[in-house]
Design a protein that fits this description.
single chain, mainly alpha
Length: 438
């Protein structure tokens, strides 16, 4: 029985393991590098580094263009148009990223001042994003369940960046050196992805073509997801930006350490859902009952994993902060306890996001993410001045609960997903065999 199930899903399980291995190795390496860099720079300078990366991430959403899972779906369903899909996706992402970078520089010049440490850090961090459009190669490997090649590319970039960070710590270098490693890492990943694609794909790079009609079609399908992705990044990164505005760089550094520990696990749902996404598309077309059954199982799995992580982080938050980051960051412990519980909603949101693409209900991505971003900004505005970094953590928790769970109850089409998620919250009761939850 177990072997039959394994044989049936072997391809997807192996692909998930490759993605998980990539993210797990990256998480471990990045974590220990963050420890070294945070200890070396101290809360204030580490805050400048985190602030620059957060601001750049906000503008990186401009290069998303609503593609992501949409491109994977199109590559699977329309094999004859793969060259146009990839070429057009690359062009759209490049245009969006360049526009975002220009806005980033204008913001840094006006708010931070040209020539300031923050301006230089933001400019370098933003330049790294100009290489992100080449991640369309990742969509190709996702569509054909070949995540190991993406793993190799990302690990190559991480290895180079890690070695540079170690050298810079040993040299006693300043903030700008560490920001520069993000740019070098992005360049190495882009080159590695293109190399892997050239070796493994039968579709040559020369066959990637921009097609105006295809661009219009992709953007008409993805613009809602595009706006939703902008709102999602606001929800994820605006807290650190607003902390910089209200509290200063040191507060950002203290908060960033807690967020690093909390958000380090966010790769888990992305890896799991990405591997099963092609199968869910197939089941939706052939067997709606099996589709709903698999989706519920996915929600259950994501909830249990998120709960386990949140409990561990809550129980050992202070010890983790002291052991790894030292007493200079002790205030991060209470922030971590609050922030880590957002994982419950973020994990299940990963499956909901794919459901949105499969169902073609893209408007709900915009509405729910927009609500989360609005709640996050409003709560940060009122809570940060009064409660500091803990206020930002509460804002994050509440905003994710609103955008990824409670808001689904409002609309009739998303209401079944709300009840699936609610059912997952009672997973332990269902496991015990109590009636009414099966």
């Amino acid at each position: 029985m177990i072997l039959d199930v394994y044989d049936k899903f072997k391809k997807y399980l192996h692909n998930t393991l490759w993605i998980m291995s990539d993210k797990l190795i990256s998480m471990v390496i990045v974590f220990f590098l963050t420890v070294l860099v945070a200890r070396h720079l101290g809360p204030e300078n580490f805050g400048v580094l985190s602030y620059a990366i957060s601001v750049a991430a906000l503008l990186a959403a401009a290069g998303h263009m609503g593609l992501g899972g949409l491109v994977v779906r199109e590559l699977v369903k329309k094999p004859d148009e793969r060259g146009a899909t990839l070429g057009t996706s690359l062009a759209l992402k490049l245009v969006g990223m360049v526009a975002g970078y220009v806005v980033l520089l204008v913001y840094a010049a006006i708010y931070e001042g040209v020539g300031s440490l923050e301006f230089i850090a933001i400019a370098i961090a933003g330049a790294a994003l100009l290489f992100n459009p080449f991640n369309v190669v990742d969509f190709w490997f996702q569509a054909f369940v070949q995540a190991k090649y993406v793993t190799f590319a990302r690990l190559a970039g991480l290895t180079v960046a890690s070695l540079l960070n170690l050298v810079f710590v040993f040299m006693g270098a300043g903030v700008i050196y560490f920001v520069t490693t993000t740019l070098i890492q992005a360049i190495v990943i882009a080159i590695s992805l293109l190399t892997a694609y050239k070796i493994r794909s039968s579709l040559r790079l020369s066959e990637w073509k921009f097609n105006g009609a295809r661009a219009k079609d992709l953007f008409s399908q993805g613009w809602l997801v595009y706006l939703g992705s902008i709102f999602a990044v606001i929800n994820l990164k605006m807290d650190q930006v607003m902390l910089r505005w209200f509290e200063g760089a040191e507060s950002v550094g203290v908060y960033a350490v807690a967020a690093q520990l909390s958000e380090a696990w966010y790769f888990v749902p992305v890896a799991i859902v990405a591997s099963f996404f092609p199968k869910l598309i197939e089941l939706k077309e052939k067997d709606p009952y099996a589709f709903n059954k698999r989706l519920q199982q996915l929600f259950d799995l994501l909830f249990v994993l998120a709960l386990a992580i949140a409990l561990v982080m809550t129980l050992f938050s202070e010890k983790l902060i002291i052991v790894f980051f030292g007493y200079h960051y002790i205030e991060s412990a209470s922030i971590l306890v609050i922030h880590t519980w957002a994982a419950i909603f973020i994990f299940m949101r990963a499956a909901f996001s794919k459901w949105i693409l499969i169902e073609g209900a893209l408007v709900f991505s915009l509405i729910t993410q927009g609500l989360g971003a609005l709640v996050n900004v409003v709560l940060n505005y009122f809570l940060i001045p009064r409660y500091g970094a803990e206020g930002a953590a509460y804002a994050t928790l509440v905003s994710y609960a609103c955008s990824s769970f409670f808001s689904l109850l409002i609309y009739s089409k998303t209401r079944p997903i709300f009840f699936m998620m609610l059912k997952s919250l009672f997973w332990f009761i269902r496991l015990a065999g109590l009636r009414g939850f099966r």
